């Protein structure tokens, strides 16, 4: 059995006991305000066998131009090379996790699906859930003894460009969904980007609304009901997901799939690209 959305701590423990060679763990811990925080967190303790994959590594984010956002798409071959170096094959079950309730692991999950890898799942609840279940952590860094055969198998998910979203402001053909906190959506308390506000016509769905109090995802039927209501019954293909830099939007994309509602395109540049482009209109308030 393979996992393509979420995997619970219990499911991961069973998989690691039954066939440890079939799974590769990726620690994706990150902090938007401290580029070294993820690496420090990994060094202080991670799941046994986990490799570290940083959000700002060239394999997970492309080169920044000042006009394309904080986490532009990487080159596809860069991600392929990284996965091979980490010992990943085309049939490997990848499990990604972080210390921030899936915020950053979700972007790595999306990126691997962008390359056509089906068997990739986010650890539900992250390292906190692992520890709460008495899962062991280690400071040992695994030694990868072989290169994998991971390959680019085409896109299972899709991205849209700045130009696509700009055209949609006029047409309103698709509903843009912003995953940032409500105050940032309104243009208040902006701490990451030079301009506050949101894309005209967008609606706000703060990604943390996908979670229960313990930091794990809500049940699929609950998510399905909430998301349908939030999006006015629009199907996933009529949505565009965005956030600050194309990271927490992937949390909403994961929630869509957990709920069985399909997937939507991601505006990778998101607000950090939008607010840097002089031709982009900006709205504030609710």
Automatic annotation (TrEMBL):
Recorded hits in CDD domains, A to Z, give: TST_Repeat_1 (cd01448), TST_Repeat_2 (cd01449)
UniProt GO MF annotations = thiosulfate-cyanide sulfurtransferase activity
- Name all Rhodanese domain ranges: 19-139, 170-283
| Signal sequence segment | none
Identify the Pfam families for this entry.
Rhodanese
Keyword annotations for this protein, in alphabetical order, are:
Repeat, Transferase
Q: Which PANTHER family match?
A: SULFURTRANSFERASE, THIOSULFATE SULFERTANSFERASE
Q: What is this protein called?
A: Sulfurtransferase
Origin species = Orrella marina
């Amino acid at each position: 059995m393979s996992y393509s959305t979420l995997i619970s701590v219990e499911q991961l423990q069973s998989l690691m006991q039954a066939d440890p060679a079939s799974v590769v763990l990726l620690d994706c811990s990150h902090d938007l305000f401290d580029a070294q925080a993820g690496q420090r967190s990994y060094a202080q303790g991670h799941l046994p066998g986990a490799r570290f994959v940083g959000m700002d590594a060239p394999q997970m984010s492309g080169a920044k131009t000042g006009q394309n956002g904080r986490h532009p798409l990487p080159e596809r071959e860069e991600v392929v090379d990284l996965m091979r170096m980490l010992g990943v094959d085309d049939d490997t079950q990848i499990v990604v996790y972080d210390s921030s309730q899936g915020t950053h692991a979700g972007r790595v999950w999306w990126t691997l699906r962008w390359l056509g890898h089906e068997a990739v799942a986010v650890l539900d609840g992250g390292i906190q859930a692992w520890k709460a279940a008495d899962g062991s952590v280690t400071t040992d860094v695994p030694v990868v003894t072989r290169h994998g055969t991971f390959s680019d198998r085409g896109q299972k998910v899709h991205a849209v460009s700045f130009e696509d979203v700009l055209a949609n402001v006029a047409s309103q053909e698709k509903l843009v969904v912003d995953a940032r906190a409500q105050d940032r959506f309104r243009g208040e308390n902006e701490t990451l980007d030079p301009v506050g506000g949101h894309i005209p016509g967008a609606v706000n769905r703060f990604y943390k609304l996908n979670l229960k109090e313990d930091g794990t995802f809500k049940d699929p039927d609950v998510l399905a009901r909430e998301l349908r209501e939030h999006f006015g019954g629009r199907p996933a293909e009529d949505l565009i997901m965005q956030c600050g830099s194309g990271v927490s939007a992937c949390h909403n994309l994961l929630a869509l799939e957990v709920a069985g509602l399909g997937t939507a395109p991601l505006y990778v540049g998101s607000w950090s690209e939008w607010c840097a482009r002089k031709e982009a209109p900006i709205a504030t308030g609710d």
